[in-house]
């Protein structure tokens, strides 16, 4: 394909070879340091509105398969690589990265110094960027970037429109979809949960009607403050049933509990992020993808307890409610991609549900006895 | 958790001599471990018999014992030092095995010595085949169908059951020693018999063959709080079937999806947790390319060759952290030394591709069995880093310093197609070149995949390179293709060949068009965090990250991969030169490509460029850094070979000049030099034709030594006794060396003397004069060397000193110089002058306490030795006797003749020292792995010319109570001297022939000297190989035999003294 350029808001620009879709794209540029898992990353709805740079220089080596998608329609706006592989080799490979991106109308740019780009993002923080043809002069692209306001409705773009059920015989879980990775659903159904996936703006009443044993709040794109309706819903849910939040879901629990969130300089995106559990003193390697985090100081006035922090920058990685069976993590225990070291959190969630059921039963018996 | 305070003194076990399967990587890991422990405030005691290592320097440990790594000597050290703990997991298989043996005695209990790192049960669980299988079953980790056998018949029965091919893996041996793949019962029986005899527990594992699976390795670490992480995963270029040490390995894995990656990661972490290892561990796995089926192949519960590679590939110092973990620290409290801000509890992210390529010794052993299999044959390896696979592979190829700087071997171009096919099926050391050749012949990728099992991903990359070759051929020196080619790693040499020009023209074109590389940092985190590691690699990219300081800088060229003739001793010198430069206030920059070494540890120098050592790569760094000059004296022949090119490009060579180097290497100039200085040398001439050779030999008289000029380690050097032999030598060898003249010298038989000196042009300091046990004719690297000299007169010594001083002054040498003499009729003849660091620099430095490389570096930079407190002449003379004993890896190299000669064959060395020569020899030989029984039997079979001399040896053996066996001719000679002997029949005879005697284990020694003539040569070969394969010492030089007899003699009379002897320390 023809030459393309990647222009950043700060004026830096790169010339590379276009691949995938020939379309133009403007988004927030971020980088991910994972060495495997490009298919999962590209299809992770949390990247809605973003152009992702892969720091590992060879992308597409094992092709695209039918199994490893984290969503049906990728919401990513662009893919930046050093090199993409046109001759992938893996028994599950069905098409090349190039073919896939083209089919999904996602532009890609290859052949650029992604390490240089990563360092720029690291220094300046995430910023707006555009993948476009060489026809536009850089000044013009910068002008466009200046005038572009990035969307704030990403969650509504990637959340399910209608509720649907993935039946199981175990716990009844209502999963609020803010841009769910399939991995979360898979972990729940693997544990035989009966999962009802509902849109992000479902009210607490509607959820209550589904008689859930527990609420799962998923990951999702963008600033958590852009989904105020969900914050309200979660406020009402806390104290009703056990809640487990991941990523955006975690941030929403924090906001619903009176804490605050803030944008990070360049976020955490990769499969090698160490997180320290403050309770048992252990550190886990986690998969992460977040550009916002819960402000540590803001936790003081809330009922939330800080349970986990990033080993490297001490940012908030895990929270638990002091009074109710509500807990959350900033990272991705469902992995996909990344290490599966914290997969047991789904078991913890289900244990919380069992304990809650038992307690309710006891309370009911107690109540009966009183009567 | 904080470090342990209940420990004070820790004994670290090193890995001993360099052998195939255990090379410089353990000097690196041991050095790091010692440093880390000292850093934490512990007293470090080190035991390692290898004097060439950096770890055995006093700078790295508080006490150093260069004693044999045997239970006997370790027990003495423990009694003497009474350490609180032993750290055995950084000394390779040697360290681990020794720890296991020690734990079977009571010494550890008696002195309350704790084993750190890995519990003894875990070591056994990982090493013992049966226990390992049980553990894997318990963990629900799949292992290939297998059984443990202790007899050949049991092996055959099992193989019958599961079907051929099967793999034989002897228990508790390293580098796959004695193992192999068998296609039929005959092979199975042979390999199993051999394997059983090599296994210390007489066990072999017979395993279902899973050849064709992807081979993947995970380097994992765990601490006592059960944090477990993956430092690096790696994928072998070749599928299962070739030992990972003999495979091209790529990091990170290239063809694994995240699901596969995580599946194998989970398996690896589960295993390290189950074993309870506190430190590093290596897990080898096989993955079906067509499903998620995988098998665990092997676990090394220790720091390994792969962990050294992983450390260099990622920047994450595994050995250092393993040592810290061993004393109780946990990963989440140790800072990542690369970023300095983040923690060690994370998994490195790479933003480049790393390729490791093994370096095999078949340039020296052309007739050896070059087929690759489950037994490792490589002596060393190189690593290369690039921003794409092709670049990293091709940088790797030119780092090998083989015959080529690209994927092209002229010798393959003429081979018929069917030979190429055969060589694709049975992999050998030239595999990657054979693949390239097949692609040039338009073989399809599917065909190649079918024949080799190599993943199409890799084959596609090779194809891309071959396609680009065609473009270059048609387009010549044009910008776009050249730029593309450089991005994909093409060397200037490759471009020059394709275009039909020379490297200078390509280089100049590139400079003109600014096609030059930039340097990227290795930072463990793919740029996520700011790092200041001074560790760089080149790539044809956009941004350069190597910031140039305004300090005065010096570039030191390293010695590349470990090979026979150029071992870890050159890394020792390189590291000391770097340290000296830092001490003097220079910015010390190093270039090297060997991932096993200390010199490529980024914390050693001010700046490390992990790069090939070809002219263009070195020039690129010079153009960027603009150093004061380049030091080439410490990097062996690798660095010396660059002198010409660097000089041509106007680069200043620091120290001894190029002209001086030429005067020692160019035959005619050298002769003129010695004549001018009136120094004796054997007669001889350089010739370029067969006729000239014959004429010269007639003039000076046989025997003559013949060799090509400009070679290392005596490659293709031979002693020739007559014209017929000379003719056949010229025929076989001259073809290969048509560019270089052949040297024909008078062969003087006599004692060999070696001198190492440091010179500043005026003052010439001589730390040592060593004499060799074996007479001239055996390569100095293969001889036992003794210090101080025992047999030479004061007068002779003075001749050597005078000659050394004269030559050094005449050539205005600045730096190190090594001279070899042969003594004949009370005259010391100069046979060789090396204007660089020699193999014996670390040996002598440690004995005399004179830090030779450090002093030499200072002299190179213009310091006067007199100002440093040294005067001309012999310096330093410590008490005692010190011997250097060579160590061979013959049991790993099939079909390699073990006879000693002018061509070097040893892979490593050990030291032995004590109050007397015999005691020192005993220790040295023991450290080298030789068992010295005081009674038993010896088999003699020598050439006619040696019979007279052999009688002395036979007599002493007899007097010591040994039973003598001999072949007919030899037996006759012994009998006529009145010594009783049992005659055995020659090779091939039906009853009780010489081979049977050796195989039955009746004799402890075989004394065999090289006989002339086709038949006797091949008989001798079989005798020697049979001995090696049955672990019986085969002495091919009467001098070696004599030395052993003397040792046994001294033991027999003073047997008690050995037992009571205290371990001495340097």
Automatic annotation (TrEMBL), chain A:
Listed GO biological process terms: 'de novo' pyrimidine nucleobase biosynthetic process; 'de novo' UMP biosynthetic process; glutamine metabolic process; L-arginine biosynthetic process
UniProt keyword list: Amino-acid biosynthesis, Arginine biosynthesis, ATP-binding, Glutamine amidotransferase, Ligase, Nucleotide-binding, Pyrimidine biosynthesis
Active-site residue numbers: 247, 332, 334
InterPro entries attached to this UniProt entry: Anth_synth/Amidotransfase, CarbamoylP_synth_ssu, CarbamoylP_synth_ssu_N, CarbP_synth_ssu_N_sf, Class_I_gatase-like, CPSase_GATase1, GATASE
Keyword Metal-binding: no
Residues reported to bind L-glutamine: 46, 220, 222, 248, 251, 289, 291-292
Catalytic activity as recorded in UniProt: hydrogencarbonate + L-glutamine + 2 ATP + H2O = carbamoyl phosphate + L-glutamate + 2 ADP + phosphate + 2 H(+); L-glutamine + H2O = L-glutamate + NH4(+)
MF annotations from Gene Ontology: ATP binding; carbamoyl-phosphate synthase (glutamine-hydrolyzing) activity; glutaminase activity
Biological pathway: Pyrimidine metabolism; UMP biosynthesis via de novo pathway; (S)-dihydroorotate from bicarbonate: step 1/3; Amino-acid biosynthesis; L-arginine biosynthesis; carbamoyl phosphate from bicarbonate: step 1/1
Domain (Carbamoyl-phosphate synthase small subunit N-terminal) ranges: 2-132
Chain intervals for the UniProt region annotation (CPSase): 1-172
EC number: 6.3.5.5
Function description: Small subunit of the glutamine-dependent carbamoyl phosphate synthetase (CPSase). CPSase catalyzes the formation of carbamoyl phosphate from the ammonia moiety of glutamine, carbonate, and phosphate donated by ATP, constituting the first step of 2 biosynthetic pathways, one leading to arginine and/or urea and the other to pyrimidine nucleotides. The small subunit (glutamine amidotransferase) binds and cleaves glutamine to supply the large subunit with the substrate ammonia.
Subunit composition and interactions: Composed of two chains; the small (or glutamine) chain promotes the hydrolysis of glutamine to ammonia, which is used by the large (or ammonia) chain to synthesize carbamoyl phosphate. Tetramer of heterodimers (alpha,beta)4.
Family indicated by similarity: Belongs to the CarA family.
UniProt protein name: Carbamoyl phosphate synthase small chain
From TrEMBL, chain B:
Residues that bind ATP 1: 129, 169, 175-176, 208, 210, 215, 241-243, 284, 298
Keywords in alphabetical order: Amino-acid biosynthesis, Arginine biosynthesis, ATP-binding, Ligase, Magnesium, Manganese, Metal-binding, Nucleotide-binding, Pyrimidine biosynthesis, Repeat
EC number: 6.3.4.16, 6.3.5.5
Binding sites annotated in the UniProt record for Mn(2+) 1: 284, 298
Residue ranges occupied by any ATP-grasp domain in the UniProt entry: 133-327, 671-861
Record PROSITE patterns: ATP_GRASP, CPSASE_1, CPSASE_2, MGS
Keyword Iron: no
Family to which the UniProt record says this protein belongs: Belongs to the CarB family.
Name of protein: Carbamoyl phosphate synthase large chain
């Amino acid at each position: 394909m023809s030459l393309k350029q990647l222009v950043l808001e700060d004026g830096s620009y790169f010339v590379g070879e276009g691949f995938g879709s020939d379309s133009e794209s403007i988004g927030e540029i971020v980088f991910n340091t994972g060495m495997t898992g490009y298919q999962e990353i590209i299809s992770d709805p949390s990247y809605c509105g973003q152009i992702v740079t892969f720091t590992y220089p060879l992308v597409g080596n094992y092709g695209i398969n039918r199994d490893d998608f984290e969503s049906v329609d990728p919401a990513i706006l662009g893919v930046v690589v050093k090199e993409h592989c046109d001759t992938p080799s893996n028994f599950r490979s069905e098409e090349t990265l190039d073919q896939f991106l083209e089919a999904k109308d996602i532009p890609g740019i290859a052949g650029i110094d992604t390490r240089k780009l990563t360092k720029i993002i690291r220094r300046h923080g995430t910023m707006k960027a555009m993948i476009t043809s060489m026809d536009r002069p850089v000044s013009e692209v910068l002008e466009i970037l200046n005038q572009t306001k990035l969307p704030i409705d990403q969650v509504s773009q990637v959340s399910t429109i209608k509720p649907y059920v993935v039946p199981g015989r175990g716990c009844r879980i209502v999963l609020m979809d803010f841009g769910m990775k399939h991995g979360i659903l898979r972990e729940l159904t693997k544990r035989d949960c009966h999962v009802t996936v509902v849109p992000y703006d479902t009210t607490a009443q509607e959820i209550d009607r589904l008689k859930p044993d527990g609420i799962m709040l998923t990951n999702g794109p963008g600033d958590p403050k852009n989904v105020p309706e969900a914050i309200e819903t979660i406020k009402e849910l806390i104290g009703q049933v056990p809640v487990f939040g991941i990523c955006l879901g975690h941030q929403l629990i924090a906001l619903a509990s009176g804490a605050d969130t803030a944008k990070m300089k360049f976020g955490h995106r990769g499969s090698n992020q160490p997180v320290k559990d403050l309770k048992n003193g252990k550190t886990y390697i986690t998969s992460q993808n977040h550009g916002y985090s819960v402000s540590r100081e803001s936790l003081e006035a809330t009922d939330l307890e800080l349970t986990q922090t990033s080993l490297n920058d001490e940012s908030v990685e895990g929270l638990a409610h002091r009074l109710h069976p509500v807990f959350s993590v900033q990272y991705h225990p469902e992995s996909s991609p990344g290490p599966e070291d914290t997969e047991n959190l789904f078991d913890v969630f289900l244990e919380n549900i069992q304990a809650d059921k038992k307690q309710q039963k006891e309370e009911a018996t107690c109540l009966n006895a009183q009567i | 958790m904080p470090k342990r305070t209940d420990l004070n003194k820790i004994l670290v076990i090193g890995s001993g001599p360099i052998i195939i399967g255990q090379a410089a990587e353990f000097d690196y890991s041991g050095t790091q471990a010692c440093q880390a422990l000292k850093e934490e405030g512990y007293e470090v005691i080190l035991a390692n018999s290898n004097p060439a290592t950096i770890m055995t320097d006093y700078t790295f440990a508080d006490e150093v014992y260069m004693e044999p790594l045997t239970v006997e000597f370790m027990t003495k050290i423990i009694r003497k030092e009474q350490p609180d703990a032993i750290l055995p997991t950084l000394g390779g298989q040697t360290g681990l095995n020794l720890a296991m043996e020690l734990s079977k005695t009571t010494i550890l209990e008696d002195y309350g010595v704790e084993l750190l790192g890995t519990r003894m049960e875990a070591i056994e669980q990982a090493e013992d085949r049966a226990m390992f299988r049980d553990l894997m079953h318990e963990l629900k980790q799949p292992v290939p169908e297998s059984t443990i056998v202790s007899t050949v018949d049991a092996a055959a029965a099992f193989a019958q059951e599961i079907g051929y091919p099967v793999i034989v893996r002897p228990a508790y041996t390293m580098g796959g020693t004695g193992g192999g793949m068998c296609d039929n019962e005959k092979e199975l029986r042979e390999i199993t018999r051999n394997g059983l005899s090599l296994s210390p527990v007489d066990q072999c594992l017979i395993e279902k063959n899973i050849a064709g699976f992807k081979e993947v390795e995970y380097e994992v670490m765990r601490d006592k709080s059960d944090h477990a992480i993956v430092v690096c995963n790696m994928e072998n270029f070749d599928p299962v079937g070739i030992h990972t040490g003999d495979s091209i390995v790529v990091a990170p894995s290239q063809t694994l999806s995240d699901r596969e990656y995580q599946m194998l990661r989970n398996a690896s972490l589960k295993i390290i947790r189950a074993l309870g290892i506190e430190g590093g561990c290596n897990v080898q796995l096989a993955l079906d390319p067509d499903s998620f089926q995988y098998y665990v192949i092997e676990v090394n519960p220790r720091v390994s060759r792969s962990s050294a590679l992983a450390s260099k590939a990622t920047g994450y110092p595994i050995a250092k952290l393993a040592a810290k973990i061993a004393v109780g620290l946990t990963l989440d409290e140790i800072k990542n030394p690369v970023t300095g801000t983040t923690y060690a509890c994370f998994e490195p992210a790479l933003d480049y591709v790393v390729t490791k390529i093994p370096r095999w010794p078949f340039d020296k052993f052309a007739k050896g069995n070059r087929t690759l299999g489950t037994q490792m044959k490589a002596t060393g390896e190189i690593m290369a880093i690039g921003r794409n696979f092709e670049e990293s592979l091709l940088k790797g190829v030119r780092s090998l310093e083989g015959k080529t700087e690209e994927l092209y071997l002229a010798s393959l171009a003429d081979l018929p197609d069917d030979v190429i096919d055969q060589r694709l099926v049975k992999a050998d050391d030239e595999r990657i070149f054979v693949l390239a050749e097949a692609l040039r012949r338009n073989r399809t990728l599917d065909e190649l995949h079918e024949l080799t099992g190599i993943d199409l991903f890799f084959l596609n990359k090779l194809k891309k390179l071959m396609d680009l070759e065609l473009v270059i051929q048609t387009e010549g020196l044009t910008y776009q293709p050249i730029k593309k080619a450089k991005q994909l790693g093409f060397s200037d040499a490759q471009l020059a060949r394709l275009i039909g020009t020379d490297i200078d023209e390509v280089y100049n074109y590139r400079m003109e068009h600014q096609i030059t590389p930039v340097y990227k940092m290795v930072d463990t985190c793919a740029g996520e965090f700011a790092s200041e590691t001074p560790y760089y690699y080149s790539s044809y990219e956009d941004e350069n990250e190597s910031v140039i300081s305004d300090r005065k800088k010096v570039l030191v060229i390293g010695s590349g991969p470990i090979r026979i003739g150029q071992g870890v001793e050159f890394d020792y010198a390189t590291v000391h030169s770097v340290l000296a430069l830092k001490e003097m206030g220079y910015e010390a920059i190093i270039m090297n490509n060997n991932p096993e070494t200390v010199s490529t540890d980024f914390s050693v120098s001010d700046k490390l460029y992990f790069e090939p050592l070809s002219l263009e790569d070195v020039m690129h760094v010079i153009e960027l850094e603009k150093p004061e000059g380049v030091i080439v004296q410490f990097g062996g022949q690798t660095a010396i070979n660059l002198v010409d090119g660097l000089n041509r490009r106007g680069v200043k060579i620091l120290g001894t000049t190029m002209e001086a180097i030429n005067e020692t290497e160019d035959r005619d100039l050298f002769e003129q030099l010695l004549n001018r200085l009136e120094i004796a040398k054997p007669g001889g001439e350089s010739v370029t034709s067969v006729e000239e050779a014959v004429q010269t030999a007639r003039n000076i008289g046989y025997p003559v030594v013949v060799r090509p000029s400009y070679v290392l380690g005596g490659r293709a050097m031979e002693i020739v006794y007559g014209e017929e032999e000379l003719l056949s030598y010229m025929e076989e060898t001259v073809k290969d060396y048509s560019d270089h003249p052949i040297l024909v010298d008078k062969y003087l038989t006599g004692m060999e003397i070696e001198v190492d000196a440091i010179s500043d042009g005026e003052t010439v300091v001589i730390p040592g004069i060593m004499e060799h046990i074996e007479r001239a004719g055996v390569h100095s690297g293969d001889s036992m060397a003794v210090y101080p000299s025992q047999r030479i007169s004061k007068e002779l010594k003075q001749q050597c000193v005078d000659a050394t001083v004269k030559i050094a002054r005449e050539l205005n040498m600045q730096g190190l110089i090594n001279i070899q003499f042969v003594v004949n009729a009370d005259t010391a003849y100069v046979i060789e002058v090396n204007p660089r660091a020699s193999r014996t620099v670390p040996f002598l430095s440690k004995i005399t306490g004179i830090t030779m490389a450090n002093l030499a570096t200072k002299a190179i930079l213009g310091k006067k030795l007199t100002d440093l407190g040294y005067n001309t002449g012999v310096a330093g003379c410590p008490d005692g006797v010190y011997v250097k004993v060579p160590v061979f890896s013959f049991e790993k190299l099939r079909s390699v003749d073990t006879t000693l000669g002018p061509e070097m064959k040893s892979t490593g060395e050990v030291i032995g020292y004590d109050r007397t020569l015999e005691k020192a020899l005993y220790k040295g030989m023991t450290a080298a792995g030789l068992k010295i029984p005081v009674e038993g039997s010896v088999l003699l079979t020598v050439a006619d010319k040696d019979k007279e001399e052999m009688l002395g040896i036979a007599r002493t053996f007899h007097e010591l109570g040994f039973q003598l066996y001999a072949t007919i001719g030899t037996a006759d000679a012994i009998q006529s001297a009145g010594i009783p002997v049992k005659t055995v029949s020659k090779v091939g005879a039906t009853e009780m022939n010489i081979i049977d005697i050796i195989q039955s284990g009746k004799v402890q020694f075989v004394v065999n000297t090289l006989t002339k003539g086709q038949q006797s040569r091949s008989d001798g070969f079989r005798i020697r190989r049979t001995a090696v394969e049955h672990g019986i010492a085969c002495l091919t030089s009467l001098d070696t035999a004599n030395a052993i007899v003397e040792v046994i003699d001294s033991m027999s009379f003073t047997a008690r003294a050995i037992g009571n002897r205290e371990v001495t320390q340097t």
